[in-house]
Amino acid sequence: MERDFYAMLSRMKYIERWALMRNSMKENISEHSLEVAMLAHALAVIGNRRYGRRLNAERAALIGLYHDATEIITGDMPTPIKYYNASIQGAFKDIETKAARQLLSMLPEDLRPDYESIFFPEEGEEELCLLVKAADKLSALIKCIEEGKAGNTEFRSARETITKALRTMELPEVEDFMRDFLPAYEKTLDEMN
After folding, report:
1. Closest to 77 measured CA to CA, from 45, 116, 37, 29
2. pLDDT tens for each residue of 60-100
3. From CA 35, how far away is CA 16, in angstroms rounded?
C-alpha cells in the first residue's frame, strides 16, 4: 500500500512565507523549519547549561522541525489575519488540528504514534513548546534582519513587533541568544571571517 506522508512533507519547500510582504529573498517553510529546529535546540542547550534546566534539546529540535508541516495543507496564513481575534484564532487552531490528523493518516498505523507525539506534544512538554514558539519568533526576527541588510524597509515594523513579543516572553534563554548571537546576523560574511 502506498503512503503519501513523506512525499507530502517534501512539499514544504513549495509553501512560501511572508506572502503579504515584499521580499528581497523568498523563504519557504522547509527552510524556516530547519532554522526553527536549530534555534529551538540552541535555546534548550542554553537553558540546560546556563539555567540548570533539564530540557530534551533533541526533542525541541524535532518539534521545531515539524512545527509548520500542517501548512502543506492550510498554506501560510499571515500573522495579522491568523491572530486577528480569538474567534479566528480558535477556528484556525481547529483547521491546523484537522490538517495534522490528515497528514498522520498518510502513515501506516504502526508509525503513527511516533509522529503523533511530534504533531501533538505530550503533557509535560509545555516548556519545549514554548521554546519552539520562541525559536519560531527568532527565525522571523532573523528574516527581518536579513531583509533590512538587503535594503528592504518592508520588514522594519515587523522587526519591532517581533522583538517586543520575544522580550515579553521573558525567557532567559531567548535573552541570552538575542544578546550573544543575534548581533552576528547583522554582519557580512567578511566580518564573520
Report:
1. 29
2. 999 999 999 999 998 777 666 676 688 878 887 888 999 99
3. 15
Is residue 2 over pLDDT 70? no
| pLDDT of res. 80 | 66
Tell me the C-alpha to C-alpha distance, in Å, between residue 162 and each of 43, 97, 106, 122, 144.
17, 25, 35, 27, 9
Quote the cell numbers at residue 41.
Answer: 535546540
Cell numbers at 173, concatenated: 534563554
DSSP 19: T
Q: How far apart are the first and last CA of the chain?
A: 51
The total number of residues shown for the chain amounts to: 193
Question: Which grid coordinates belong to 182?
Answer: 543575534
Residue 171 grid cell: 525567557
